[in-house]
Amino acid sequence: MTTLVFLDPAFEDGRPADAAEPQLLATDLGVTRGDGVFESLLAVGGRPRKLPAHLARLAGSAAALQIEAPPNAAWERAIATALARQVQADGDGPAVVRLFLTRGPEGTGTPTAWVSAAPVPAATLAQREHGVKVLLLDRGYDSLDAPQQPWLLLGAKTLSYAVNMAAIRHAKANGADDVIFTSSDGRVLEGATSTVLLAMEQDGVRTLLTPELESGILAGTTQAAVFDAAGKAGWALGYGPLEPSHLLEADAVWLASSIRLLAPVTHIDGEPIRTSQRLTSELSALVEDIL
Questions:
Q1: Are residues 143 and 233 in the same domain?
Q2: 25/84 Cα distance (integer angstroms)
Q3: Whole-angstrom Cα distance, residue 144 to residue 216?
Q4: Mean of the pLDDT values across residues 1-15?
Q5: Shared domain check, 105 and 153
Q6: Last residue of a domain, one of 100, 120, 140
Q7: 278 and 196, same structural domain?
Q8: Does residue 200 share a domain with residue 63?
Q9: Quick one: which of 141, 194, 131, 134 has its CA closest to 170?
Q10: InterPro entries under this entry (predicted)?
């Protein structure tokens, strides 16, 4: 069951709505133009994880699109209402919470904001446990484009996800589960809905690496949390630049995201790569402790 709660000034804790009934105007620019932003986060036991980080990223994405975002307190109350209804309907298992903010109906100047909550799909949990096969796909821009072309909204989490979803469909049609995007100049960027992490061990030193944010990727809240915990646990940390060869040479590669957490990458372009159950277990334990 999916629960919906709209942020509405007339309802302090949000306005519950029926997910089985139409709720958006056909003129909402989030629908007609993909003109909006969103966030996805995990809730366990009815409690959202990494909420301050997600709200901060949502505010940054909204600022990039010049959409006025509701205050954090309004989001927090609506999330609490949605999760209370979701727990009542489906129990306190892990849930996907999504925050949506659009520019609103055309011509009104009034943004539309709502929260949804639903159980985490079984397929998502399976990828966390069994890993994923990925294809490398060219994202179609140079890794140096982001600072020079802010209108591309690289690094903002917008509703314009058609390319990302098309990439995943392409991967599945070719025997894979997901993708890792690369830049036109050969740098590793990110997954369709995730951040890339890789680990290397040499002479007893464990190093955790991720692509550099300057390449225009979305700042990963899970990646940031993992880096913080791994650094405290004695890991060395690094931010690219990374190339596909680094993925093939790594001791382990993961796709990190708020819902799947750490999904080990088992194959790249049809070829098996090294995995490490030990490293996956260690980092997953750190994630569970900090989230």
A1: yes
A2: 26
A3: 8
A4: 96
A5: no
A6: 120
A7: yes
A8: no
A9: 134
A10: Aminotrans_IV (IPR001544), Aminotransferase-like (IPR036038), BCAT-like_C (IPR043132), BCAT-like_N (IPR043131), Class-IV_PLP-Dep_Aminotrnsfr (IPR050571)
Residue 279 CA, distance from chain mean position: 22
Rounded-to-integer distance, Cα 185 and Cα 190, Å: 14
pTM (predicted TM-score): 0.92
**Cα distance between residue 6 and residue 9, in whole Å:** 10
Name the residue range of residue 73's domain: 3-120
Listed in sequence order, the DSSP H helices in the chain are: 29-32, 51-64, 72-90, 122-130, 145-148, 162-173, 221-232, 244-249, 277-290
- What is the layout of strands, in order, in the sheet containing 95-102? 11-17, 3-8, 112-119, 95-102, 36-44, 47-48
Asked whether residue 109 falls in the same domain as residue 129, the answer is: no
Query: Is 208 in contact with 238 (CB distance < 8 Å)?
Result: yes
Largest CA distance in the chain: 62
**pLDDT tens string 29-80:** 999 999 999 999 999 999 999 999 999 999 999 999 999 999 999 999 999 9
The total number of residues shown for the chain amounts to: 291
- Rounded Cα–Cα distance for residues 238 and 225 (Å): 14
Q: Rounded CA gap, 162 and 140, in Å?
A: 15
Do 183 and 239 lie in one domain? The reply is: yes
CATH number for the domain including 82?
Answer: 3.30.470.10
* Average pLDDT taken over every residue of the chain: 94
CB 138 within 8 A of CB 182: yes
180 contacts 263 by C-beta, under 8 angstroms: no
CB neighbour list of residue 62: distance below 8 Å, 6 or more residues apart: 37, 68, 69, 101
Contact 100, 38 (CB under 8 A): yes
The DSSP result for 153-203, as a single string, is: -TT--BS--HHHHHHHHHHHHTT-SEEEEE-TTS-EEEESSSEEEEEEEET
> What is the number of structural domains in the chain?
2
pLDDT value for 145: 73
